[in-house]
Model the fold of this input.
Amino acid sequence: MNGQLEKTMVDAIPDGMLLVDAEGHILRANAALQTMSGYAEHELLGATPDIFLPPALRTAHAGLMKQFLPSRPSATCRKMART
Done:
């Protein structure tokens, strides 16, 4: 898919959305998330989602992210909902 088309489609989603890599770094933040958070995309790129948490919760959250994210680079997604 064309990169600009993908960005346009993701930005059209009305809910805030982050795309993170296997290490937990933000690769993309859609327009809705930028509006909700007050951060511009360039401020979020490379950061971790911990940026949205109070400092007292960041260490615990980092541990949970390590458990959640794929343990191998070839894994590209993980189901979030129970089916």
Observations:
- The radius of gyration is 14 Å.
- The longest strand covers residues 26-29.
- Residues 55-68 form the longest helix (14 residues).
